[in-house]
Write a structure and sequence with these properties.
alpha/beta, 4 strands, 156 residues, binds 4-nitrophenyl phosphate, Rossmann fold, 38% helix
Length: 156
């Protein structure tokens, strides 16, 4: 089997998807798996920007550096480049469903659908909240990263 390729998608690509991207990328690097992991936003307002400073800080507090990520908008070609596209909330999922080219082989679902007991749930948007929200996002990002590893048969 080809090495898995996973894309995380939120709205701005500066809070939730960079944290999920960072949590999984870190595990993939630690295990030497060589998977492709990336993130994007359904919106383009933050294109080219680094993650939100609060997202960078919570990841850094857990030993993960996401400061070099740069926001980008999801594009139709992503459906050819990635096996698994994980939406952080229902609006993102609806936007991705509209963008998906007909017959695209990429699997598309909510990121928390992969996590036992969390099916159908959204990762809450921490953008307008406080640091506690970013801690919760980081916890979700780690649960999602572990679930993706398990899904493709890697150790956690
Ligand atoms: P994200 O959070 O989708 O998790 O990156 C947001 C980032 C920016 C905005 C909203 C949510 N915004 O309205 O600019």
């Amino acid at each position: 089997m080809q090495t898995p390729s996973i894309l995380f998608v939120c709205l701005g690509n500066i809070c939730r998807s960079p944290l999920a991207d960072g949590a999984l990328r870190h595990r993939v690097r630690q295990q030497g798996l060589g998977w492709t992991v990336d993130s994007a936003g359904t919106g383009g307002w933050h294109k080219g920007e680094p993650p939100d400073a609060r997202a960078i800080a919570v990841a850094r507090a857990h030993g993960v550096d996401i400061a070099s990520l740069r926001a980008r908008q999801v594009q139709a070609q992503d459906f050819d480049r990635f096996d698994l596209i994980l939406a952080m909330d229902h609006d993102n999922l609806a936007g991705l469903t509209r963008l998906a080219p007909m017959g695209s082989p990429a699997e598309l679902c909510l990121a928390l659908d992969l996590v036992a007991g969390r099916q159908g749930q959204a990762v809450a948007d921490p953008y307008y909240g406080d640091d506690a929200g970013f801690n919760a996002t980081w916890a979700d990002a780690c649960a999602i990263a572990d679930a993706v590893l398990a899904r493709f048969g890697a150790a956690r």
